């Protein structure tokens, strides 16, 4: 059974989304692989502070070009759509757990490039919102 101190620590970690923050910072570190990791992390934390103060979204590992590349991999025949299963798998691979289960095109099992990018960006913004906590 957990002690009160352990419960308090777990509550603190959950309240301040410490695990999510560390996951985001680690992802940024592995993605960019800077020469000076400590300096890079300090700069990321400065950006997080500024984004919180200015109510601008936090840093994100993926950009529009990255999402275009993911879609192109999923649509090698250039049909301009992917299946719902591909959409779900891609978003989960990008680290987005809370996905829209009814995106535009789901009834036809044809998720367009634009819908995929919109849903991915929204999911990534929700994920990066942990920075603003």
UniProtKB/TrEMBL annotation:
SUPFAM superfamilies documented for this protein: Dimerization-anchoring domain of cAMP-dependent PK regulatory subunit, EF-hand
GO molecular function: calcium ion binding
Domain of life: Eukaryota
Domain EF-hand: 62-97
A Pfam family it matches: EF_EFCAB10_C
Signal peptide: none
InterPro entries: DD_EFCAB10 (IPR049760), EF-hand-dom_pair (IPR011992), EF_EFCAB10_C (IPR056587), EF_hand_dom (IPR002048), EFC10 (IPR039879)
Protein name (record): (Atlantic silverside) hypothetical protein
Species the sequence originates in: Menidia menidia (Atlantic silverside)
């Amino acid at each position: 059974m957990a002690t009160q101190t352990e419960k308090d620590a777990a509550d603190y970690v959950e309240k301040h989304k410490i695990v999510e923050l560390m996951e985001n910072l680690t992802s940024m570190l592995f993605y960019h692989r800077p020469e000076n990791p400590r300096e890079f992390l300090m700069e990321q934390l400065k950006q997080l502070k500024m984004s919180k103060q200015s109510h601008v979204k936090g840093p994100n590992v993926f950009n529009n070009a990255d999402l275009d590349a993911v879609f192109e991999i999923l649509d090698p025949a250039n049909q301009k759509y992917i299946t719902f299963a591909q959409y779900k798998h891609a978003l989960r691979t990008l680290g987005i757990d809370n996905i829209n289960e009814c995106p535009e095109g789901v009834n036809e099992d044809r998720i367009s490039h634009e819908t995929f990018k919109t849903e991915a960006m929204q999911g990534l913004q929700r994920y990066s919102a942990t920075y603003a906590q």
